[in-house]
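ARCHIVE CARD
SHELF: 3
SLOT: left
DATA:
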Amino acid sequence: RKEYVDLYVNYVFNKSVQKPFEDFMQGFLRGCPARNWKMFFPEELQVLLQGYTTFDWHLLEKNVKYSQYEKLDQTIRNFWTVFHKLPEEKKKMFLVFLSGSDRITGYGLECFRFCITDPQLDNPDEFCPYASTCSLILFLPR
């Protein structure tokens, strides 16, 4: 039984995907030659390709720009108070809502900037916040 299980696992995880992986690797290396990747340590390459997955959320707050708001406006203070009380998973969900990804590029949060703006709606209580993922703008009604 053990030999059967070992053979089955080897087939599922190695043999069955060998040809598609080789095809992918060939195409990937055509566009991104291996010599260019050798300068990175594995951890650095992972961050470069996948982005950061852990964050200093206070740095995120520090880097925000405001339009039609001031940093000390009550709406903004309420937003950050609630945001910082969220569990880590929900904060990452906010990143997805804002940017389309739960990760930050390899440059890190130091270079990640987004804007919070007031959409200046007639009845702001009737609207939910919305985002422009391409522009990294959070439209936050008062």
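SLOT: right
DATA:
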Amino acid sequence: METPAKSPDGSEKSPQCRELVTSDTGSTLCTSSRSESVWTSASRSRWDIYRKPVIVVAVGAAVFLVGVVITSLSCFLTNNKAYKMSGPAFLSLGLMLLVCGLVWIPIIRKKLKQRQKSQFLQSLKSFFFNR
């Protein structure tokens, strides 16, 4: 007597299912997608939401301050041209990162409000049409 084939998780398969090739492509695509947070309804903490822009703002402020220090050193040291060239570069890079991070925060807030409105409208829609 022939025993049915068992899958790796221990469940038995029918003879028709033996010929089918199992694929985990769907599950790996879903878990590796960038928009995974759209499909999950778990709420995230404020640190999880604002972590990246806060880090960009902090790094931008630090680089900007380094640029200020290097530029001020170039005023006092007249012999070194490296300070005169690298000071403005650090200033501009730090200012760019600082502004990008500060602009990123309102964009995230707007997206969160839109997502809350969308979830509210979806719940209203399901309430009225699923009766």
